Each structure stands twice: as structure tokens, then as C-alpha cells.
Amino acid sequence: MFSHNIDLNQKWDADFVSFSPIFEPLKLWANNFSQFKDGWPGLNDYQAILSALPEPILTQSGKALKIVQQDGKPGHFSEHYAPRIYLSGEIQTRTENWHDFFQFLTWFMFPKTKAIINAIHIPAAQVRIANNTDLGRRSPIENMLSLFDEGGAVILCSDDSMLQLIRDFKWKELFWQRRDELQSKLKLVTFGHALYEKGLSPYVGMTANCILLSAGENILQQTNQQQLDFIDSELAALLSKGEPYKKPKDLSPFPLLGLPGWDKNNEMESYYDNTDYFRSGRNKKG
Questions:
Q1: Looking at the domain assignment, is residue 279 inside a domain?
Q2: Residue 203 lies in a domain
Q3: Pick from 168, 202, 175, 162: nearest CA to 268
Q4: What end-to-end distance do the CA atoms of the chain give, in Å?
Q5: Minimal CA–CA distance to 232: which of 117, 144, 140?
Q6: Are 230 and 222 in contact (CB under 8 A)?
Q7: Alpha-carbon Rg of the chain, whole angstroms?
Q8: 132 lies in the same domain as 167
Q9: By the 8 A CB rule, do 229 and 142 touch?
Q10: What span, in angstroms and rounded, lies between the C-alpha atoms of 34 and 244?
């Protein structure tokens, strides 16, 4: 399908950003690591990028984000992954790990939104601990936020009729019949770090869980960094209000490889006849 695929068990490949359009939004920040040709950057290299920022990335509690090595099993609430970020700014990170690398980069791309998502998780987790309930039993909004944080994307679109096609699962009409309009009217920006990881070895079936944003043509013509700033502000405001995204089904499924240029095989109309990928609606578990 693609000329490049990365074996996730292999060593670092500094050229990964050129392998798929999925990586275009993070290219600026990934370029900080382009000099590492012979092996993975270390956690000290991650921290050096953070420390070089004009202003620190802050959690909602006002703590500066910093990289620390992943510890063992947490013994107290404050030692769990999300609370530790919120309370101390420390983001536990594994070495030589694509998943954690992309998690790190998304904090640069969406600092306000990542901080909001982190903060929303904290009181709900505290309630579960106080009531001695199962830590794994999260509320609908927590499940939605986790789904988006891991596998989400944002769609900027200047044509509301296209956004409606996404809501209605009208994929062939969107991707084929209106193909010539897509480049100028719609842009997908990947948010989730797990989705970026999947982009290293793309496969038919890759689906993003999307937040849809109406955006004027001026937004679509902006630079990548300007678009990221716009998205970050919009998402932070939306998620802070809790409307309209409150549960997993409020996110819109989107088959990524339907976008022109994301799979060389989608240049044929028959590509979009694969109803296992381009579904007519949500499955029963959705």
C-alpha cells in the first residue's frame, strides 16, 4: 500500500515524517530530532527541547511540563500517570518508544488542550478512589477524552455540507464525487498520539475519531502553526465547556485512507466500494 512502513520493533528512523501525510502537522516539532540518524534520542534530548522553549508548557495546576523516566507500579494517587502530570508536571516517558515519543510531540502542538484533557481526568479519578470503586470504570466524558487523546483527529472544513457528509457516513460522495473540492475546503489534523503511531505502518481500516470544526477559508490558507494554534484554542474552549462532546459517540468516525494522497490505491473509484472500511453507519458496538 505504502512505499514506507516502519517496523515498530526497529530502531529510530529520523525520516518518518516524509512517509505519510498523517505526519505533516507535527513536522515542525519532529524536525528537532532530525539530526538523530544513528539511533533514538534520549530523554535528556526530549527535555532539552522543552527547556529551550521561550515559555514553559504548563499544566492546569501551573506546573511546568518535564520529562521523567517511567516508574514502576504507582503506590499512591499522585504517582499515577495523569495525576502526576497534573500535580508535578512530570510526564513519565519510556525510552525508544514511538507511542511515548508522539505523546511528547502532541504537547507541543496542542498545549492548552492537552492540559485541559489532563485536568478533567483528575477529579473523576479522585472520586473513584474516595469511593473505593474500580479505577478502570471511567465516566462517559473520560472515555471520550481518552479515545480522542489516543486516536482522535480534528477536521477543519469551510463547507458545512461536507461536514454533514461525514456525520451521515456518505464516504463515496465525500471522497470521490467531491474529490476536487477536498484540498481547498477540508483538512484533517491528527491529534491522537496512538494514531500517529499507527501511521508508521498504515493499513486499510485506520479510522480517526474526530471533532469537526467549521473554519473559514482564511483558516485553511494559514500556515501549519497558525492552524495548530487555532485548533488548540477551539478545542480547549469546547472541552472546557463539556459541550457538545460528552461521550465517545459524540466523536465522528473518519476513514483516514479515503483522503486523496493518503493511499495510492484510492485513485480508483472502486476503492470506496469497500464497505468494511467505508461503513454506512456505526457498528453495533460503536
A1: no
A2: yes
A3: 175
A4: 27
A5: 117
A6: yes
A7: 19
A8: no
A9: no
A10: 39
Does residue 5 lie in a domain region?
no
Is the pLDDT confidence value at 2 over 90?
A: no
- Chosen domain end from 108, 137, 166: 137
Same domain, 129 and 152: no
* Predicted local confidence at residue 127, as pLDDT: 77
Around 133, how many Cα atoms within 13 Å sit in the side-chain half-sphere? 11
Residue 120 · residue 142 · CB < 8 Å = yes
| CB of 247 closer than 8 Å to CB of 142 | no
Q: What is the DSSP letter of 190?
A: E
**The whole model's pTM is what?**
0.93
- Least confident residue range of 1-10, 159-168, 176-185: 1-10
> What's the CA gap between 105 and 126, in Å, rounded?
28
What's the domain range around 240? 146-273
CA-CA-CA-CA torsion for 189, 14, 262, 146, nearest 10 degrees?
-40
Sequence letter at residue 184 = S
Report yes or no on 286 lying in a domain.
no
In terms of Cα–Cα distance, which of 20, 45, 43 is closest to 34? Answer: 45
Among 96, 97, 89, 100, smallest CA distance to 57 is for 89
177 and 90 within one domain: no
Instruction: Tell whether 104 and 188 lie within a shared domain.
Output: no
Cell of 127: 472520586
Q: How far is CA 202 from CA 100, 138, 263, in A?
A: 18, 30, 9
Among 13-17, 55-59, 62-66, 280-284, whose mean pLDDT is lowest? 280-284
Counting every residue written for the chain, the total comes to 286
